[in-house]
Write a structure and sequence with these properties.
Layout (H helix, E strand, L loop, with lengths): L34 H4 L54 H4 L1 H5 L6 E8 L2 E7 L7 E3 L3 H15 L10 H4 L17 H5 L16 H9 L3 H6 L15 H15 L3 H13 L17 H9 L19 E3 H12 L3 E2 L2 E2 L3 H7 L14 E2 L4 E5 L2 E8 L3 E6 L4 E7 L10 H7 L6
Helix pairs in contact: 4-9, 4-10
């Protein structure tokens, strides 16, 4: 259910902002997603790179970890995060305490979590608590990408070279652009499908998202579009591509995207979604429906055919968002089980596509943005209005920031470089 298209400031996709190198309050690359409440379409995906062009054909089994990540953990947060004093995990409590001062300059904040060496060392909430669901907006895209990797591991997908024509044949309209049937899963993951971009902050056309939402069959509507570029040739941020990935996960696994996630991702991580709110997205939801979404601890809307929105709308508590970052920090391995192929995780968090020039993010992996933070390689899942899930592997660090998107401020991520990294002592 989407807030009415056409009502003023109702974004249509997941937004992306520059990391802390940009100390401006400017709106990020994607200032138009308002998840379920504002609208849909998230903005955080573009991956693919020469270094991994053959990655999709590989069915990886390795378990290698990024530098700085321990090979053994003394516990896994499946049943819940353990806390630790900052000094016990190599952080200066006095420097970290600067956060308590600096957050006053970010009234949009709803939650801020810092996980170091697997322990929760800083946790604050505004207008809620640890049980409050957070609207992830385009952070949803990174969850969708994780499910693609799991589908590959489970042999529901043979490779990332499989095509739309093979996997979504039943949805292709007779008049479909013949090139679209040849678009691969990897090209969808990397935002190089040839579909037009739908995020205006990245030179996309927001009316495309509006047309999708108002259509009776979103997947068929997307597949009825004409491509604007040769598949694989160029990057264009398309939330429609992320939604096709959700449909591919569902059709290939024989389960809804949420049901597949529940058994293969959420349950192993200890994320409880048994009572998830699953409204059908509509352009003009009732106020009662909007309020039900706002109250929900866990939610994931669907399109009219029941496909969960692959680009945005997922709602989880902040501690659960941190678990996805921790899974990727550990190379896709969780408590002795390789949930996502290690090489898929590596490819996901390396630059596979180059966003348009002028941006402050270095590249895009498989639905993760790739950058550096104060000289440290980093990858981020970003959502409109200040939603951040940031991982800095060589510091063994995960940070979750969620915000009230109504404030249209996305500068809270600056706190990572201002106070969190400087507090690290080892």
């Amino acid at each position: 259910m989407l807030k009415a298209i056409g009502r003023a400031p109702v974004p249509l996709a997941g937004g992306v902002m520059a990391p802390s190198r940009a100390h401006t309050g400017a709106r990020s690359a994607g200032a138009w997603e308002r998840g379920w409440r504002w609208l849909l379409v998230a903005v955080v995906a573009c991956l693919l790179a020469a270094a991994c062009t053959s990655q999709q054909s590989e069915r990886p089994t390795g378990t290698s970890r990024p530098a700085g990540v321990p090979t053994q953990r003394d516990y896994w947060p499946t049943a819940g995060w353990r806390t630790a004093p900052p000094a016990e995990v190599g952080m200066d409590p006095k420097v970290l305490a600067v956060l308590d001062t600096n957050v006053a300059y970010h009234p949009q904040l709803r939650s801020l979590l810092v996980v170091r060496h697997g322990y929760l060392v800083y946790e604050r909430y505004w207008n809620g608590d640890a049980g409050t669901g957070q609207d992830a907006f385009s952070v949803t895209k990174s969850f969708t990408a994780a499910l693609v990797g799991i589908a590959l591991r489970d042999h529901h997908l043979n490779s990332l070279d499989q095509t739309v024509g093979e996997l979504l044949a039943a949805h292709l309209p007779p008049t479909a652009d013949p090139r679209l049937a040849k678009v691969t899963v990897q090209q969808l993951l990397t935002m190089r499908s040839g579909l037009a971009g739908d995020d205006p902050s990245l030179a996309g056309d927001p009316t495309l998202a509006e047309a999708m939402v108002r259509s009776r069959d979103w997947v068929r509507h997307i597949l009825g579009r004409k491509l604007v570029a040769k598949p694989g040739a160029s990057f264009a941020y398309s939330s429609a591509s992320s939604h096709l990935l959700s449909a591919i996960v569902a059709d290939s696994s024989g389960k809804s995207t949420l049901a597949f996630a529940r058994s293969r991702l959420f349950a192993p991580l200890g994320i409880h979604t048994e009572h998830a709110f699953q409204p059908v997205e509509v352009a003009d939801p009732s106020r009662a429906a909007e309020q039900a979404y706002e109250r929900a601890k866990v939610a994931w809307p669907t399109d009219p055919q029941g496909y969960h929105t692959g680009f945005g709308g997922l709602k989880l508590p902040a501690r659960d968002l941190a678990k996805l970052g921790y899974l990727y920090l550990n190379g896709g391995r969780w408590d002795g089980v390789q949930l996502i192929p290690a090489s898929y995780v590596r490819a996901s968090t390396q630059r596979q596509s180059q966003p348009p020039p002028g941006g402050r993010l270095d590249g895009y992996g498989y639905q993760w943005w790739v950058t550096s933070e104060r000289g440290h390689p980093s990858f981020l899942a970003l959502g409109f209005g200040g939603q951040f899930l940031q991982v800095i592997p060589d510091l063994d660090l995960v940070v979750v920031i969620t915000s009230d998107a109504a404030n249209h401020r996305e500068d809270a991520q600056n706190l990572v470089g201002e106070a969190i990294i400087p507090a690290i002592t080892d």
